[in-house]
Each structure stands twice: as structure tokens, then as C-alpha cells.
Write the C-alpha cells for this entry.
Amino acid sequence: ETGVTQSPTHLIKTRGQQVTLRCSSQSGHNTVSWYQQALGQGPQFIFQYYREEENGRGNFPPRFSGLQFPNYSSELNVNALELDDSALYLCASSLDSQAQHFGDGTRLSIL
Amino acid sequence: DQQVKQNSPSLSVQEGRISILNCDYTNSMFDYFLWYKKYPAEGPTFLISISSIKDKNEDGRFTVFLNKSAKHLSLHIVPSQPGDSAVYFCAARERGGGADGLTFGKGTHLIIQP
């Protein structure tokens, strides 16, 4: 059983740039959620995709957007990057509303 | 306003003893609770969950207890082993299947001493 994989593992960008992070869900899972984890904090929910549609969103501005593909993989896009966007971005997949399983994350640094 | 609180940033326990990690929540709409373990440079690993219709769930060395009236849950690890040293996150989900995602606490760093 292949787990959740995320790419890239690390990324450095500058303010104002745009970034795309990628996630392959665990086999058999149809739901993908994205989280942002700042240093010393717990993960914060960004949004969730189910069968290619966004079906839930946390308190994040519209410059955070996403996609889910027919094979249930997903992308997180962030436009107009700000210094506060520096964080670990975690992807989690699940089968419907069962327990979510996380990837190892992408560490994004904004200079 | 933090809806899920883990008030102990760290906890040190001797190998072989019981580790008890605590979590409090304020949102009465939460009906499903999970514990995750996180090693440095890895993503959180799912440990155990409990639905609000239960007050206890066991899986091997791990037991989760839920006290709905006190809005409190705890994770017991018996016996504690060196590999249990990690950051433990408590998470909760609202009724309705989770389209609102999980709400996490800030984590407790568990250190198992030999």
C-alpha cells in the first residue's frame, strides 16, 4: 500500500511569487485535505477536496487555491506569497470521512 | 480562540511506565477525536481515534478515553517505550463528516527516559 507522498520536500521562494505543491493520495483514498503548520503550532486546515470538488475550507484567503485530479492526486497553489506563508504544508488523504493519513510535508521558506 | 488545547508542551516519562497525554476542547459540535504522533522531519502518523458515542477505545498499548461532559480526552500509553518519544497531537472533527477538516492542538512533546 503506497502512502501519501508530497513534492517537493523543500522550496525557497521570494515575496510576491507563486508556488504549486503536489500530493499523491494513498491508494484507495478519495479525499484530500491540506494543512499549514507554523513552527510550534498544530496543523491548520486550509481546504479539502472530495471527488475533484472543494467541499470545505478553513480561514485562509482566496490566494490559497487547489485542485484534485481524477486519480485523486492534488495540488495546492499559493499566489502573491507573503513572509507569513513560510511553514510546513501537509497533505492528508482519507477514504470519505475516515481517519486522515498524512504525507511528510513540503517545507516552504519565503525570503 | 483555541478550540483544542494541549496544555502540557512537554512530558517526561520513564521507560516502562504509563504515559498520559491530555487534551481539552471547547466546541460541543466535535464528535470525532484523533491522536497523531509526529517525529521530526516526518508527517503526523495516525495512532487511534474515538467517536463521541464511545468513552474508551483501545489498540494495543494505546488507549484513548473521552469524557464528553468535561470536554476532555486523554491518551494512555502502557508500557512506554523509547520509540514513543515524539510530539503527540490531539485533533477533533465536527459533526457532518469532516468537510471542515481537523482542528489540532499545539502538541505535547513526550520524552521517554531510559
